[in-house]
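Office hours follow-up: a student asked to see two folded examples consecutively, so here they are.
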Amino acid sequence: MGLCLKTFYCKKSKVVTLGKNIQISTLILRRVVLVANIKPSIILGYMSKAKIITTVDVAEVTPIYPPEGSEPGDVVIARGFPREPLPVLEPKARIYQTVSGLFKTNNESIVCYQRIPWEVEGKGFVNIYHFPNVLVR
């Protein structure tokens, strides 16, 4: 897949840059799932070194939360796909844009890549409650 998906814990004092209309209250003191190997870029005047994965095409943009018990830095996997993240995703290669079109929740609101559930090994599946069959990016 080429992406480095990890969990992350946002603290009140942390600067988070977002290119989406998202409620900050959904991030404060919460663990979220990020693409950790995005090439750093300036968003709204701040250097952003990761991308928060959120729902797409729903009334309210919602971040994707890892399973309970996840710790910052835990790796998110899709079983059967080799975990070979690139050190940095180059924007011109459009790798993220290509594979993110295959991120979608299933009928049980579990986030999947090509219908294979995302999980944090030993801790459970990445689930976005109440959002079945939606795209995530």
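And the second, which I mentioned at the end of office hours:
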Amino acid sequence: MDTPEIYHHLLSTMSSTLANLTQHNYNYSIKSIPAIVYLATVMLVGFIGNSIVCYVYLVKLKRIKPFAYFILALAIIDLVNCVINIPFEIFHLTHRFTIGTHTLCKIKSAFSPFVGTLLAIIIVPMSVYRYKKICRPLNKQMTTHGARLSILCCFLATCIISGPCVDIYGPSPITDGYFNGSMCAISKNTNFNHSVACVSAFCCTFVVVSITIVLVYSLIWRQVVRSNKFRRSLLSVGHINSNNGLAGEDTPRDTIMTSRHAVRYRKTTLMLFLISLVFILTYLPHLVLIAVIISKNKVLISSSHRLSGPLNVAYNIGVRSYFISSASNPMIYSYCNMKFRHAAMSIFKRKR
């Protein structure tokens, strides 16, 4: 066989292989349509919602409180999810068997662990801020400068935790009898102990954050219950008049809030609690599946394309469950924060 025939044979073989992989990509994307619809919906809702959040806090509200910096930081991180990570995941589902050869695979390894870890860590100072506001109202409170500084510390801590894990994702061969593909997963060149260490770091971060949130909001709940009991006892003996003012001068003014102020405090506390709760509930399935993949030495992810329709959908949504918080957070802000809701609604009102 002379050189032109060899070249023609190789070209024919490569074309046949590419066509085969393209067909497998198509078949897998059809099987994954529910997961793609889920990601597209979260991306659209999250992009619109978090864009509104950023616009409201950066443009509409000139003076914002320290907790608003945390909300703004979360909105920016969620936007990164909606603009970079979710589109990549959709591309991943439609190019399952060839994505390992794309540079997008390296982008995933840089952004996905970083964004997930930063979302987890930033919830901690946000919860502590609320604890000091409710349980230690007379102590020195966090300022706007302190909020910005704590966000910066969260960013640096995330770099330390997720930095060593940037290169664990990469091309990973996938073989199934009639074809050889390349998917984007934990790279074949990644040392097993390295991948275990990275997942362990993420798991430990998640556990520490979850325990901190549970403890902090338990203390906040206890304080709220005590305050309500104290307020009811004062009302029962007539220390507070019908206008929620103080009838006697012997009661400390700073220890009793007006009804409107108390409702606003409860709403803000509920908002931050719901943000934390939704993150924990949506991040947990993702982390469990990743831990199972590592414990099975990557067998699950390399054979996930063989899963039946419902199992395949459950797997692909479960491993990407943490994206839900990127769409739900703006809804939580709107429900719990009247000032934000009015500012957001004013954007869409036509000028008369």
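Two things to take away from it. Confidence is low (pLDDT under 50) at residues 7-14, 240-257. Residues 15-25+32-348 form a domain with the Rhopdopsin 7-helix transmembrane proteins fold (CATH 1.20.1070.10).
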